[in-house]
Amino acid sequence: MSTSAGSVGAVTPQALCFDEPLALQSGASIAGYTLMIETYGTLNSDKSNAVLICHALNASHHVAGYYADQPKNIGWWDNMVGPGKPVDTKRFFVIGINNLGSCFGSTGPMHPNPATGKPYGADFPVVTVEDWVNAQARVADRLGIRQFAAVMGGSLGGMQALAWSILYPDRLQHCVVIASTPKLSAQNIAFNDVARQAILTDPDFHGGDFYAHGVVPRRGLRVARMIGHITYLSDDDMAEKFGRDLKAGDYQFGYGVDFEIESYLRYQGDKFSDYFDANTYLLITKALDYFDPARHTGGDLAAALAHTQASFLLASFTTDWRFSPERSREIVQALISNRRTVSYAEIDAPHGHDAFLLDDARYLNLVAAYFNRIDAGLQGGTA
Asked: What's an example GO cellular component term for this entry (predicted)?
């Protein structure tokens, strides 16, 4: 990475409003919705240097930089996107979009339903990864971007990038899929359902209409986040950070916090319940569960990817047991069978699934090298 790497600086989100109904995979549709976006860098004259960053479960359109009135609110992938960083905003025009149904400004369950004037709540339609991609394509249309230089994401964002290559094969040159999977395992679906049950059974949930009651199902959200956070970390990472360290130096012989790991998880749960919406959590975990591009090809992933045209970069992390390297290799093999151009790296990192957000030099240099190739292609070389 360049030694001149820096921040994109203060950024300002934009709200894009769409009146035309968006047909959803469930058979429902939604009209009059808003999508929040942020952009970084400059779109070139032929609009060929645009990069779409797709976000994961609890992230948003705020990919990089900070807000002038909230200088500590730094974008969730700020180490990846910016001047001199792997996705270099001196060369690329980067777009972050907050997905439909989220709770960071895009239309979601907490927003008024035009039909009733009250918050959608439980009436907000279930959305899928493919629905998000279709909505993102409308943003590209609005910005006049016919083809992305790359679509990139980690975890759930990687699913969206993969879906882009299938749904809009001629609208992206490169597909970058980090720490992701072609579908959730039964174990992953089980974790998601336990988390959802924690929310659904919270007395303050009120069937999803808790807004009208002036409450938040904090207990459910706390437990959901604690469950999720356990799966994002590796056993080695937990052992190194916390081990069996005691909060008060000795056993308390009660059911409060004894161990440092308990304190950490409760802190993460409390923080999450302050800013995340319970209905959004249900929606996004269900979208994770439903993603399975090979569902309509009899489980044949190669057949599902047969019409892709992009070149691909995939990366996985050895200690990521949530979206293990084996799942990335499935995608690689399916692409190779279709004679696609594929680069794959399996990075030995101790941090579990969260590694895709962290500062591992090998990982960041890998992405930087790949985007250097993309830029060379835009300048007339070979990408």
From this structure: cytoplasm
